[in-house]
From TrEMBL:
InterPro entries: Arg_deiminase. It catalyses: L-arginine + H2O = L-citrulline + NH4(+). This is arginine deiminase. It comes from the Bacteria. Its EC number is 3.5.3.6. The keyword Nucleotidyltransferase does not apply. It comes from Pedobacter albus. Belongs to the arginine deiminase family. SUPFAM superfamilies: Pentein. Keywords: Hydrolase. The keyword Endoplasmic reticulum does not apply. Pathway: Amino-acid degradation; L-arginine degradation via ADI pathway; carbamoyl phosphate from L-arginine: step 1/2.
């Protein structure tokens, strides 16, 4: 094992412990190839402007992550990194000046590194060629392509001369969805959407072949299809075993949440629970069943954790429709199946005796108070400050999809004004990332001492891709909560 791998630890046991290492993927040229007629198939709400999404938005994310996770790479160098002559080299995976951080880890570079090995390169080229229906001649050509270039081709779908050979995978920026770190294990996803299949294949090869994860080979959990799957007639979509990372939350060392949603099926949750219990990864798994619709897509689009005792959530998900209901109609009609939300907890030591929570807020309260031992009451911040129609408008643009970089310090979009007001009302400071970065550079702000802050990130283009910073992060290492 090389010295570099000795330092590469994998461990995440909460959603909010100080973030030390994560996998990200910066918007690649494939995002600039999304055409309107394909946007929906590729799970984008609209086409995006590549230059703006990079320079005006995502680059700030990378810089902020650096100040918190790998300050040596950036502190004192910001003026140069941002200068015209640097030409964004710090942010370009194939550039010799690329940051190459081992804390803020770019997936494209891990891919390039495993492709150095000829046997892995041949296998992965064959696998990609098979799922993308490439010709045999193209397959041979790809095997002979230099690793860095090949990694870029696999992700963007485009050769160096700009010929498109297969579709891009623009959703790879949402690294959260390809897998989840649960304690020292990594649960790989099983995507529901065709547009996300190649991402999964590439990540599977990375986890199983990159020296970073060499120590953890036995801790990688993959979800198989049950035998019945192959025997069902026709194009059966109902019983598919699917699970995407946005539906998995590691809320306390012994407890994982799995959302059943548009993307994660009951069958997927079932297989995951069995594996997590069999392999002694956790003792409790709570399944939160949310409406299966595009607006919500994953569990982390309707709530995320901010602090031990603080969560941000969409109110219509938080409670059963009858809770606080003021009008007779709420009692007269059964909630539509699509709108119903339930939370069911499975305990490894009490098989066959699941515990039912009255509503999601009761579950969150239980996690804060009992799993995490809060001494203060649980606080719930609502999307859009719980005011119609801002609640659902802001949820759509990821008001509930925040990334905690440390407890109480979260990243969210700058466009969700009412949610921002709700954070302020709950005692949070609100800062623009542009200002914070200046202060971190000048020393006026310090990543170690920052508390209770919502960091506002520019979002005009990013939000069209329908994911926030929770989705754009795959935490690999977080500190334990003290
Ligand atoms: N964890 C998440 N909420 N991810 C958001 C993914 C968004 C992406 N466009 C998709 O539909 O797949």
């Amino acid at each position: 094992m090389s010295a570099q791998n000795e330092n590469f630890k994998v461990k995440v046991n909460t959603e909010i412990g100080r973030l030390r290492k994560l996998l990200i993927h910066s918007p690649d040229s494939g995002l600039g190839k999304v055409v309107p007629s394909k946007a929906q198939d590729w799970l984008f709400e609209d086409i995006v402007h590549l230059d703006t999404i990079r320079k005006g938005e995502y680059d700030y994310y990378v810089k902020l992550l650096m100040y918190f996770l790998d300050p040596e790479k950036i502190k004192g160098k910001l003026a140069h990194i941002d200068s015209e002559e640097a030409n964004r080299a710090f942010f370009k995976p194939n550039d010799p000046q690329f940051h190459n951080s081992q804390a803020v880890v770019e997936v494209q570079n891990l891919l390039a590194e495993i492709l150095e090995n000829e046997s892995i390169r041949k296998k992965l080229v064959a696998a990609v060629a098979a799922i993308e229906g490439c010709t045999y001649k193209l397959q041979l050509k790809l095997v002979d392509t230099a690793p860095q270039e090949l990694a870029e081709i696999f992700i963007s779908g485009t050769l160096a001369d700009d010929t498109m050979i297969f579709a891009p995978i623009p959703n790879l920026i949402f690294t959260r969805d390809v897998g989840t770190t649960i304690n020292k294990h990594i649960l790989l996803n099983k995507p529901a959407k065709k547009a996300r299949v190649r991402e999964t294949l590439l990540m599977r090869y990375i986890f199983f072949n990159h020296p970073y994860f060499a120590e953890y080979q036995n801790n990688i959990i993959e979800i198989p299809d049950p035998t019945q799957h192959f025997l069902r007639p026709g194009e059966e979509t109902h019983y598919r075993t699917t699970l995407e990372g946005g539906d998995v939350m590691m809320v306390s060392p012994n407890h994982v949440l799995i959302g059943c949603s548009e993307r994660t099926s009951e069958e997927g949750a079932n297989e995951a629970i069995k594996l997590l219990f069999e392999q002694d990864v956790v003792e409790k798994v709570t399944v939160v069943k949310i409406p299966s619709k595009r607006d919500y897509m994953h569990l982390d689009t309707v709530f995320t954790q901010v602090k031990r005792n603080t969560w941000v959530i969409l109110n219509s998900i938080a409670h059963s429709p009858k809770y606080n209901a003021s009008e007779p109609i709420n009692f007269l009609k059964e909630p539509e199946r699509l709108e119903a939300t339930t939370a069911i907890q499975f305990n490894k030591n009490k098989p066959g005796e699941p515990k039912y929570f009255e509503h999601v807020e009761a579950l969150l309260n239980d996690i804060s108070q009992n799993d995490l031992g809060c001494t203060e009451p649980t606080k719930i911040i609502y999307s859009g400050n719980n005011t119609f129609p801002y609640d659902s408008r802001e949820q759509w643009t990821d008001s509930c999809n925040l990334l905690a970089i440390k407890e109480g310090v979260v990243l969210g979009y700058d466009r969700n004004d009412k949610t921002v007001e709700a954070f302020e009302a709950n005692g949070f400071k609100v800062v623009k990332v542009q200002d914070l970065i200046q202060d971190l550079e000048s020393g006026q702000a310090n990543a170690d001492t920052l508390t209770d802050t919502l960091i506002l990130m520019p979002s005009a283009e990013l939000s069209r891709a329908r994911g926030g910073f929770h989705c754009m992060s795959l935490p690999i290492l977080r500190d334990d909560l003290s």
